[in-house]
Design goal:
103 residues; mainly alpha
């Protein structure tokens, strides 16, 4: 593993720890996961996403997280492939949502 890959892996791990730490203190109302726009509605519909505190993340990250979490629960990939390839926030959110919700 190269130094760059190791740095990316550590940063990704730190992000997951931050998300999980935020989940521990998240209110159960789910209001923190929703935001204006289409992404808030998607995140509010999934009960596995609604109890996550994603308020500090961009709308693109929250939308990707909701799609990834829904994919983990459905057993089939549900994501916007074009956006996954072109939007780093969406792809990181999708990866994190999928990883956390499939456990």
């Amino acid at each position: 593993m190269t130094r760059r890959h190791r740095t990316i892996a550590v940063a990704h791990g730190a992000l997951l720890v931050t998300i999980l730490a935020g989940c521990a203190g998240a209110p159960s109302s789910g209001s923190g996961a929703s935001s204006g726009g289409a992404g808030g509605a998607s995140a509010a519909q999934s009960p596995r996403v609604a109890n996550r505190n994603l308020s500090g993340f961009s709308p693109a990250f929250r939308q990707g997280y909701a799609a990834g979490c829904d994919s983990a629960g459905a057993g089939s990939r549900q994501r916007d492939e074009g956006r996954y390839k072109s939007d780093p926030d969406y792809s990181m959110g999708w990866n994190d949502g999928y990883s956390i919700c499939r456990k």
